Amino acid sequence: MENLNSIGLDTTKSAELAGKLDELLANYSIFYQNTRGYHWNIQGEKFFELHVKFEELYNELLIKIDEVAERILTLGHSPNHKYSYYKTISSIQESNEVSDGQQAVSNILSSFKTIITLQRTLLELSADAGDEGTNALMSDYVRAQEKSVWMYSAYLKN
Fold first, then answer.
1. What is the pTM of this model?
2. How much is the average pLDDT of 124-143?
């Protein structure tokens, strides 16, 4: 029992999960800020439609950022909160100002691909650790984001 954390998970596996969740947190944080930039800078014929969609997305991302950070804390670790750190470990790169809707949606789809792939890795790690809490969270995220990918992809085909 001494190698178990406060929620009964192996401390070594929990540390590995927390590290991977920290990587997810970094990616979500960069994705969030990029999406705010798309919201602020969007121009053109689809302005009203995309301005609202980007705001919906960044609000969803903000909730996920908080949930991921809280999951790291639940596992007994501290989430990193520095953007300088996020930039070093995030696979999603900061965007330049993007005012073109097609480019913004394309960037969003690329970010979703990165996020979903990382969450699938977390699904495997959490299953191995017997961590139902992290597993359920990642499963819910993947399901919802796959639908978002379908919808944003459909937008690009207009």
1. 0.95
2. 98
